[in-house]
């Protein structure tokens, strides 16, 4: 899913939503884990729904299957799976995501220049690598956002213990 998202230049939010939909759908009682093709079909459908929610231009359903795939589905089959995903998730498609928190926190900090965009892009890249790991669903979106921001801040400005101790004692 993330490769297709990158292939079409979708926003990070589209990728996060697609993963969110897929995780929620797969954890439902309606998902049949014993059918390997169903996971791929559900992933395509979730990406399609996320793109329709977030993007202004969405490729055709057949074109969302750009990577080497084991199965190729007809558009009608993907549409039926989209409806199954939507009904299973009770049409709750505007989920609070870690990106929601990132955006809110960054705006509250008053970052409005190029630094804001660079910081946000770094956070998005890190978050996309984190959500690829299924263990990330165990954490609240706010926790993922905060951890992501802290990690990026530490990357950008590593702690200088000498300077910190000098500042603590009143030295410049």
UniProtKB/TrEMBL annotation:
The keyword Cell division applies. It comes from the Eukaryota. The keyword Repeat does not apply. InterPro entries: Cyclin, Cyclin-like_dom, Cyclin-like_sf, Cyclin_C-dom, Cyclin_N. Keywords: Cell cycle, Cell division, Cyclin. CDD domains: CYCLIN_AtCycD-like_rpt1, CYCLIN_AtCycD-like_rpt2. GO terms for biological process: cell division. Residues 1-87 form the Cyclin-like domain. Belongs to the cyclin family. Cyclin D subfamily. This is Cyclin-like domain-containing protein.
């Amino acid at each position: 899913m993330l490769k297709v998202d990158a292939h079409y230049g979708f926003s990070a939010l589209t990728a996060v939503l697609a993963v969110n939909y897929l995780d929620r759908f797969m954890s439902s009682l309606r998902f049949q884990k014993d059918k390997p093709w169903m996971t791929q079909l559900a992933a395509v459908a979730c990406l399609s729904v996320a793109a329709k929610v977030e993007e202004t231009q969405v490729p055709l359903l057949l074109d969302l299957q750009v990577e080497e795939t084991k199965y190729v589905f007809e558009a009608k089959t993907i549409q039926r799976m989209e409806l199954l995903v939507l009904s299973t998730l009770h049409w709750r498609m505007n989920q609070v995501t870690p990106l929601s928190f990132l955006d809110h926190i960054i705006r509250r900090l008053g970052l409005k220049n190029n630094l804001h965009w660079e910081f946000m892009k770094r956070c998005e890249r890190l978050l996309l690598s984190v959500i690829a790991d299924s263990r990330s669903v165990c954490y609240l979106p706010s926790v993922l956002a905060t951890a992501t921001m802290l990690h990026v801040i530490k990357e950008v400005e590593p702690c200088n213990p000498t300077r910190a101790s000098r500042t603590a004692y009143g030295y410049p």
